């Protein structure tokens, strides 16, 4: 197994870890009698931990290399998952969630750097495939949790067993990772500082659009189908499944497409596809029949469109020679949008209705279609300029 296969394994294992945490939350809620308020606070603690750790992870990766950070964070995140299983109270679980969030945030940065290194070493796009492997890992982990709980396994031994297997697996993967090219030496930017900051923010907004769309589908697609369109709960869950099946399929096809069309055209088509999808979702609430079928097609298009947006952004950063610190900043903005977005949609839905709230991700899809390619071109051009003027930062 080469560097590409081992890196894909790291992505898949991380997807399993994410599923073990998320899929066991209802059972953990029942074990500790958390309730909606405490559960919301728990998820916020996880998010805050991740957002705090991501910028720090970028600085550490610039100093240590991303591969060393990956070797440290993968097993540590597995141990943090075990801590959540052992938590005897809501307070201890919240502290454990902060730790898990911090390690997961650092792990996400390390994974992106590792995949960027593989692309540099092989000269081939792999980012979309890596994220597709993550999705498969999440599906596999969720299925294991469902099966275990279905046969009567208690959530604590289930989580502890999963964490132990992940710890052993990640240690093995860590030892077998081959060195890959890291970020290039950090140079003083040839472009003015405000312009560079604007570029980082622009890339972060593009990434946040993708994560917000995914969060909207996770938390609101099924609710939209049941409460707005009158579907049964079983059909509502089908909407969720259709979205992620489309996202997974397109991610595995995304790298050859990007290699053929280039990142700018790929992301323009992706944004246009997602925009068309959201148009159908919004149209479903205004039509008579088949309302649910129209919505499902719309969510499939939205998932297919946004599937490659974040992989293309990360790959463009790697191609431009961005430092680990800059990549972690874009990651923080992007993940922040994904964490805040679903809550924002819920707030707007409570005041103006869910169809109105879904205009938020629809508008971001339009933004990606209209402006993301220009941001990507500027990112790649700035990297080319900095490589031509390598004035090293004094230390």
Automatic annotation (TrEMBL):
<feature type="transmembrane region" description="Helical">
    <location>
        <begin position="39"/>
        <end position="57"/>
    </location>
</feature>
<protein>
    <submittedName>
        <fullName>MFS family arabinose efflux permease</fullName>
    </submittedName>
</protein>
<feature type="transmembrane region" description="Helical">
    <location>
        <begin position="358"/>
        <end position="380"/>
    </location>
</feature>
<feature type="transmembrane region" description="Helical">
    <location>
        <begin position="296"/>
        <end position="318"/>
    </location>
</feature>
<keyword id="KW-0472">Membrane</keyword>
<keyword id="KW-0812">Transmembrane</keyword>
<feature type="transmembrane region" description="Helical">
    <location>
        <begin position="197"/>
        <end position="217"/>
    </location>
</feature>
<feature type="transmembrane region" description="Helical">
    <location>
        <begin position="229"/>
        <end position="253"/>
    </location>
</feature>
<dbReference type="InterPro" id="IPR036259">
    <property type="entry name" value="MFS_trans_sf"/>
</dbReference>
<feature type="transmembrane region" description="Helical">
    <location>
        <begin position="134"/>
        <end position="152"/>
    </location>
</feature>
<dbReference type="InterPro" id="IPR051788">
    <property type="entry name" value="MFS_Transporter"/>
</dbReference>
<feature type="transmembrane region" description="Helical">
    <location>
        <begin position="265"/>
        <end position="284"/>
    </location>
</feature>
<keyword id="KW-1133">Transmembrane helix</keyword>
<feature type="transmembrane region" description="Helical">
    <location>
        <begin position="330"/>
        <end position="352"/>
    </location>
</feature>
């Amino acid at each position: 197994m080469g560097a590409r296969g081992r890196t894909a394994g790291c992505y898949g294992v991380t997807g399993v870890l994410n599923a073990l945490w998320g899929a066991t939350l209802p059972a953990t809620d029942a074990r500790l009698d958390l309730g909606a308020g405490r559960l919301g606070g728990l998820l916020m603690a996880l998010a805050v931990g991740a957002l705090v750790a991501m910028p720090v992870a970028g600085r550490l990766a610039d100093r240590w290399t991303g591969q060393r950070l990956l070797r440290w964070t993968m097993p540590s995140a597995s141990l943090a998952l075990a801590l959540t299983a052992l938590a005897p109270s809501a307070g201890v679980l919240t502290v454990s969630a902060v730790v898990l969030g911090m390690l997961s945030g650092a792990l996400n940065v390390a994974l992106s750097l590792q995949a960027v290194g593989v692309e540099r070493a092989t000269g081939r796009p792999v980012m979309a495939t890596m994220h597709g492997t993550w999705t498969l890992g999440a599906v596999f982990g969720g299925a294991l949790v469902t099966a275990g709980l279905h046969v009567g396994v208690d959530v604590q031994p289930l989580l502890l067993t999963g964490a132990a297997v992940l710890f052993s697996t990640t240690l093995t993967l860590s030892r077998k990772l081959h060195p890959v090219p890291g970020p290039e030496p950090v140079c003083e930017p040839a472009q003015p500082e405000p312009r560079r900051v604007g570029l980082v923010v622009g890339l972060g907004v593009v990434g946040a659009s993708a994560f917000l769309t995914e969060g909207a589908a996770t938390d609101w697609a099924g609710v939209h189908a049941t409460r707005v369109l009158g579907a049964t709960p079983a059909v509502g869950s089908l909407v969720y499944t259709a979205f992620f099946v489309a996202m997974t399929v397109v991610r595995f096809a995304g790298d050859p497409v990007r290699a053929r069309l280039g990142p700018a055209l790929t992301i323009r088509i992706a944004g246009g596809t997602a925009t068309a999808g959201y148009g159908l979702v919004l149209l479903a609430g205004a039509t008579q029949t088949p309302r649910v079928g129209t919505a499902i097609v719309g969510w499939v298009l939205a998932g297919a469109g946004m599937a490659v947006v974040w992989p293309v952004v990360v790959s463009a950063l790697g191609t431009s020679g961005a430092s680990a610190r800059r990549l972690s900043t874009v990651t923080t903005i992007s993940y922040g949008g994904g964490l805040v977005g679903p809550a924002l949609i819920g707030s707007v839905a409570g005041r103006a209705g869910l169809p109105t709230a879904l205009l938020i991700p629809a508008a971001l899809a339009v933004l990606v279609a209209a402006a993301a390619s220009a941001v990507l071109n500027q990112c790649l051009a700035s990297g080319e300029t900095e490589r031509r003027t390598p004035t090293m930062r004094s230390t």
